[in-house]
Amino acid sequence: MTDHQSPSLTFTDFGAADAAAFLAPPQPGDDKYSRGVLGVMTGSSSFPGAALLGVEGATRTGVGMVRYLGPGRATRMVLQRRPEVVTADGRVQAWLIGSGMAAEGRDPSVTAALIEVLSHGHPVVVDAGALDLLEHATGPVVITPHAGELLTLLSSHGISTSRADITADAEHWAALTAQLLGVTVLLKGHLTHVVGAAQAGNSADRALGPAVRVTAPTTELATAGSGDVLAGILGALVATHHEELDADDDGNGGVLARLAATAATLHGLAGERASGGGPIVALDIAHALPATIAALRAR
Ligand SMILES: NC(=O)C1=CN([C@@H]2O[C@H](COP(=O)(O)OP(=O)(O)OC[C@H]3O[C@@H](n4cnc5c(N)ncnc54)[C@H](OP(=O)(O)O)[C@@H]3O)[C@@H](O)[C@H]2O)[C@@H](O)CC1
Ligand SMILES: Nc1ncnc2c1ncn2[C@@H]1O[C@H](COP(=O)(O)OP(=O)(O)O)[C@@H](O)[C@H]1O
């Protein structure tokens, strides 16, 4: 446990019925732009695969278009597998950044590009190697750390804890982080905890939003790249719900938190479907998404 006070929140379970509310098909009047375009800035020479995993997660969740902007090798991998992806810069409704990057040793030009994305005011899903740049965000942010990444983020704010403590008391640390930073937090694990937060205000008086818990239906999700797929799923959901996010005037990150919990639910159910009781690789989760979404829509 810890000396740091966290707001007292009651976490409720979020499940398939809750997620289904965010998985409607496109409307007859929609086109690719009205559905929403997701900008993706992920991957590096060390982790090019994470770029592909996030893009697969996003495209299989359903999104108008993905614009991928990343290093040459990752771009080639993405295009080889997903020719639908556009690699030219342009307008987007939301961003996914940081998967497959490491803050330490990041190229200064990449850091500058990430900061520019964060400063545009669009909703941003911030994963892994961009979590050190949150102070540059001007729009709604949802972060997707695992316990180790949350530990690094908290220690950069002078908060000392341990990975074991975070895992043992995930509700506390997710809530504390949301309150401290004014971002919606999705803390990954067998139980994934999500807390919405207002951007406005300071940590003493910040409004916190829904606090929900998603229980993974299979432990096979614990495999390399699984979190990169989750980040892609969430990116697509944020891009396709940009209008609801704009209209979310509760000011407590409520829509963003529910989208995050929907992503975790979908990720878990797709992993379970792909597994059928056996082992999976991360791409299997992405490939099981369309059938999983169809089943949720049919409920
Ligand atoms: N295909 C891809 O492109 C993929 C890309 N990925 C991308 O990689 C990036 C880094 O993400 P990550 O979560 O792996 O690293 P990170 O948070 O720095 O934690 C490191 C911690 O792990 C530990 N550790 C390491 N080895 C260990 C061992 N054998 N047994 C036990 N512990 C071990 C290590 O401990 P240490 O060795 O220091 O004692 C340290 O504490 C990120 O950008 C992600 O998106 C991934 O998604 C995977 C697929
Ligand atoms: N024991 C577990 N049971 C179920 N799901 C898990 C378990 N461990 C991790 N996960 C899920 O697997 C994913 C792992 O993400 P992450 O740690 O970022 O891995 P990577 O960086 O390799 O993608 C997360 O969605 C997390 O919730």
TrEMBL record:
<comment type="subunit">
    <text>Homotetramer.</text>
</comment>
<dbReference type="GO" id="GO:0046496">
    <property type="term" value="P:nicotinamide nucleotide metabolic process"/>
</dbReference>
<dbReference type="GO" id="GO:0110051">
    <property type="term" value="P:metabolite repair"/>
</dbReference>
<feature type="domain" description="YjeF C-terminal">
    <location>
        <begin position="15"/>
        <end position="296"/>
    </location>
</feature>
<dbReference type="InterPro" id="IPR029056">
    <property type="entry name" value="Ribokinase-like"/>
</dbReference>
<feature type="binding site">
    <location>
        <position position="146"/>
    </location>
    <ligand>
        <name>(6S)-NADPHX</name>
    </ligand>
</feature>
<keyword id="KW-0520">NAD</keyword>
<feature type="binding site">
    <location>
        <position position="228"/>
    </location>
    <ligand>
        <name>(6S)-NADPHX</name>
    </ligand>
</feature>
<dbReference type="GO" id="GO:0052856">
    <property type="term" value="F:NAD(P)HX epimerase activity"/>
</dbReference>
<feature type="binding site">
    <location>
        <position position="227"/>
    </location>
    <ligand>
        <name>AMP</name>
    </ligand>
</feature>
<dbReference type="GO" id="GO:0005524">
    <property type="term" value="F:ATP binding"/>
</dbReference>
<dbReference type="InterPro" id="IPR017953">
    <property type="entry name" value="Carbohydrate_kinase_pred_CS"/>
</dbReference>
<dbReference type="GO" id="GO:0052855">
    <property type="term" value="F:ADP-dependent NAD(P)H-hydrate dehydratase activity"/>
</dbReference>
<keyword id="KW-0456">Lyase</keyword>
<keyword id="KW-0067">ATP-binding</keyword>
<keyword id="KW-0521">NADP</keyword>
<feature type="binding site">
    <location>
        <position position="100"/>
    </location>
    <ligand>
        <name>(6S)-NADPHX</name>
    </ligand>
</feature>
<protein>
    <recommendedName>
        <fullName>ADP-dependent (S)-NAD(P)H-hydrate dehydratase</fullName>
        <ecNumber>4.2.1.136</ecNumber>
    </recommendedName>
</protein>
<keyword id="KW-0547">Nucleotide-binding</keyword>
<feature type="binding site">
    <location>
        <position position="50"/>
    </location>
    <ligand>
        <name>(6S)-NADPHX</name>
    </ligand>
</feature>
<dbReference type="Pfam" id="PF01256">
    <property type="entry name" value="Carb_kinase"/>
</dbReference>
<feature type="binding site">
    <location>
        <begin position="188"/>
        <end position="192"/>
    </location>
    <ligand>
        <name>AMP</name>
    </ligand>
</feature>
<comment type="similarity">
    <text>Belongs to the NnrD/CARKD family.</text>
</comment>
<dbReference type="InterPro" id="IPR000631">
    <property type="entry name" value="CARKD"/>
</dbReference>
<comment type="function">
    <text>Catalyzes the dehydration of the S-form of NAD(P)HX at the expense of ADP, which is converted to AMP. Together with NAD(P)HX epimerase, which catalyzes the epimerization of the S- and R-forms, the enzyme allows the repair of both epimers of NAD(P)HX, a damaged form of NAD(P)H that is a result of enzymatic or heat-dependent hydration.</text>
</comment>
